[in-house]
TrEMBL record:
SUPFAM superfamilies in alphabetical order: ARM repeat
Record keywords: Antenna complex, Lyase, Phycobilisome
UniProt key word Lyase: yes
One Gene Ontology cellular component: phycobilisome
Taxonomy, superkingdom: Bacteria
Name this protein carries in UniProt: PBS lyase HEAT-like repeat protein
GO molecular-function terms, A-Z: lyase activity; oxidoreductase activity
InterPro entries the UniProt entry points to: ARM-like, ARM-type_fold, Armadillo, PBS_lyase_HEAT
Length: 219
C-alpha cells in the first residue's frame, strides 16, 4: 500500500529523481488522494515535474482538476505547461473544456499549445469547435493541419469535406495520412473518390489509411 505521507516527503526532496519517483507512484493512488500531491507538484522548480503533474490531473480527475487545468492553459507563462494543460483537458472528456480549448487554438501564439488544443477538441467531439477548426486549417504549420484534420474527422464534420479535399495533394505525407483517416468518418458523395485517389498515394501509410477508411465506408 502506498504511503501518502512518504510521497509528500519525497516531493520535498532536493533530488529530482526522488520527486519523479513520487509522481510515478501516484499511479497506485486514487484520484482524490493523488490530487493534493499533484497540486503541490505544480509548484515545483522542475518543468519535468510540473509537466508530469499536469498529465496526472488529466488521468486522475477530481472536480478540482478542471478549473485548475483551465487556469494553467490560460495563464501559465511556460508554453509547454499550457500545451500539457490543453492535452489534459482532452483526457477529462468534459465538454466544459470546449470553450477554453477553442480560445487556446484561436489565440495562443505557440504552435505546440494550438496543436494540443486541436487534438483535445477532437477528443471531446463537440461540434462547437467546427468554426475555429476550419479557420485553423489555414495554419502554416503542417503539424497543426494534421491535428485539425483529425479533429474535424472526430467531430464528424461532413460539411468540412469540400475544404478538406484541398489537402489530397499536400506536400506533407502525414497531412495526407490524417486526411485519409478523417475521411473514413465523413461519408459524402466526394469522399469515396478522394479515398480512392489517396489509396494510390506514393506513401504506404497514406495508402493503408485510405484503404482502411474505404472499408469502413462500405460497412
Amino acid at each position: 500500500m502506498v504511503n501518502l505521507a512518504q510521497l509528500f516527503a519525497q516531493l520535498e526532496s532536493p533530488q529530482l529523481k526522488d520527486r519523479l519517483l513520487a509522481l510515478v507512484a501516484l499511479r497506485e493512488v486514487s484520484p482524490v488522494d493523488a490530487f493534493p500531491l499533484l497540486k503541490k507538484a505544480l509548484g515545483d522548480e522542475s518543468l519535468q515535474i510540473r509537466s508530469m503533474a499536469v498529465f496526472g490531473l488529466g488521468v486522475k480527475p477530481t472536480p478540482e482538476c478542471f478549473p485548475l487545468l483551465v487556469n494553467l492553459l490560460e495563464s501559465d507563462p511556460d508554453y509547454g505547461i499550457r500545451a500539457d494543460a490543453a492535452g489534459a483537458l482532452g483526457y477529462l472528456l468534459d465538454v466544459r473544456g470546449v470553450e477554453p480549448l477553442i480560445h487556446a487554438l484561436y489565440e495562443d501564439t505557440e504552435w505546440l499549445v494550438r496543436f494540443s488544443a486541436a487534438v483535445s477538441l477532437g477528443n471531446l467531439g463537440d461540434e462547437r469547435a467546427y468554426d475555429v477548426l476550419m479557420q485553423a486549417l489555414s495554419a502554416p504549420e503542417p503539424v497543426i493541419q494534421q491535428a485539425v484534420i483529425a479533429a474535424l474527422g472526430e467531430i464528424g464534420a461532413v460539411a468540412a469535406v469540400e475544404r478538406l479535399l484541398t489537402f489530397v495533394q499536400a506536400e506533407d505525407w502525414l497531412v495526407r495520412q490524417r486526411l485519409a483517416e478523417a475521411l473514413g468518418n465523413l461519408p459524402s458523395p466526394k469522399t469515396r473518390a478522394a479515398l480512392q485517389y489517396l489509396a494510390k498515394d506514393n506513401h504506404p501509410q497514406v495508402r493503408s489509411a485510405a484503404d482502411y477508411s474505404l472499408s469502413r465506408l462500405v460497412r
